Amino acid sequence: GISIFYNMGDGDFSEDVVYIFNYSYITSLNAADYDGDGDIDLLFAYSEYIWYGGWPININGVVSLLENDGENHFNSCRMIAWFGPGKPFDPENEINPGLTSADFDLDGDIDFLVGSNSGKVKFFKNDGTGNFTCNGVIYDYGYMSIDLDSADFNNDGYMDFIIVVPDKHNNTGYVYLKLNDGSPDCFNSSYPGEILADLPPPLDNSTIGATVLGGVAALDYNNDGNKDFIYAYDNILYLYVNKEGVYDPFYVCRLPDSPEGYPDDLIFGGLTMADFNDDGLDDLVVGGTQGFVRLFINNFTLADIVRPKNAYWYLFDNEKFWIPGYYNCSIAIGEITVVAKELEPLQRIEFYLDGKLMYTDWTSPYKWLWSKFSFGKHIVTIKAYDTDGNPVGQSKIWVWKFL
Question: Which pLDDT band, with edges at 50, 70 and 90, does 125 fall under?
């Protein structure tokens, strides 16, 4: 089903179940005023299936609109698009549809794009009353174009989109940026767009073998006027910071497993951005396959610990290998160099061990050699300061250190 969580203003949310959908799982959900009547409607997507060999096999994609009656009741469900008829296991089936909505043609109403397993991204134009016409295929990426989001990435007033595209033959892929050129069709269909990031991220191997298919969401993390983005890889979140057009990846966190030990997979999860605590910064809501909805508050941290890496073993300051299962901590035998990376220029970074200041580095790259004999589990913390000396957040990592 579909729920609205009303922000109570004190960090708590009140849930209202507004629509029960028992046919299948919902693959994508957007909220906007699609019919132009001044209230927020809901656009959702799902796959139709048939029984084949005793199993439900998805064959068609569907996009439907739930119109708000003005009192946040959503009893009117109307099919907007149907992608079929499909055949079982046909790679051209437009199943698992993913949505992103915006006023792409700047005519004052909300349009939407839809991707799918087929790799095609289609553009649906709104006539202003919630009736949509397909404007054709923007681009056929060939495989799995289900994770996309829209924002104005080049600050020209037109809404662009980013999309995760995995390679069909291996566990690699790209994040593409497709710019809106302002033409009547909005997008040039002759090329896939600009590559913003190679996938998987180069930061750790704790998801070795996982598909790079995952959610993506645009935001301005550090309020510099340039769009950054969040990428969800399996059950790990990464922040890609826009540094003059180059997108630098930073590890955010690994979502905890369910009480039964199952990973909270984000391949078919959801990401959305908004300022939930009214501090002027973009926050993040994440929902994974285990049914948990998590709110991540943007604490405006402008530095991150990049060494030691999460779930790695180090021997006398030499990186050895990844250790499965040791999530959110590292193991070091002997001395280890702790390295912090800045998101933007800083004055200094302070290094703390179990709450005690150990070293201050005033120049990038920011490093501290932890050479003192230690035994047991410790917490390493960095505190960053901007060029005016103001604190701009902290980052922590647990380290098991021996010798």
Answer: very high
Tokens found for residue 84: 């079929």
Query: In which element (H, E) is residue 195 found?
Result: strand 194-199
Q: Could you give the domains of the chain?
A: 2-301 (2.120.10), 304-402 (2.60.40.10)
Residue 45 β-bridge partners: 28, 63
Backbone torsions φ then ψ of 133, nearest 5 degrees: -120, 135
Q: Rounded to an integer, what distance in angstroms lies between the CA atom of residue 204 and that of residue 329?
A: 12
- What percentage of residues in the chain have a pLDDT greater than 90? 82
Token representation of residue 246: 């180059």
Pair 395, 382: CB distance under 8 Å: yes
State the Rg of the chain over Cα.
23
Q: Coil, helix or strand for 94?
A: coil
**What tokens appear for 232 in the block?**
């969800």
User: CA-CA distance, 389 to 392, in Å (whole number)?
Assistant: 9
240 vs 217: CA distance, rounded Å: 10
Q: Which residues contact 43 (CB under 8 A, 6 or more apart)?
A: 29, 30, 31, 32, 34, 63, 64, 65, 66, 80, 99, 101, 112
Query: Which has the closest alpha carbon to 308: 210, 397, 247?
Result: 397
Angle subtended at Cα 157 by Cα 152 and Cα 163, rounded to the nearest 5 degrees: 25
Euclidean distance between CA atoms 244 and 227, whole angstroms: 10
> What is this structure's pTM?
0.92
Task: Yes or no: say if 208 and 236 are a contact pair by the CB < 8 Å rule.
Answer: no
Higher-confidence position of 309 and 380: 380
Please state, in angstroms and rounded to a whole number, the distance separating the CA atoms of residues 138 and 123: 7
Chain centre to alpha carbon of residue 331: 29
Are 253 and 236 contacting, i.e. CB atoms less than 8 angstroms apart?
yes
Residue appearing with tokens 């700047």: 106
Total residues found in the chain within this entry: 403
Question: Contacts from 87-91 at CB under 8 Å and sequence distance 24+?
Answer: 87/59, 88/50, 88/52, 88/57, 88/59, 89/57, 90/59, 91/117, 91/118, 91/143
Residue range 159-178: mean pLDDT, rounded: 94
For tokens 């046919």, what's the residue?
Answer: 23
Report d(CA 394, CA 281) in Å as an integer: 17
Question: What pLDDT, on the 0 to 100 scale, is given for residue 212?
Answer: 87
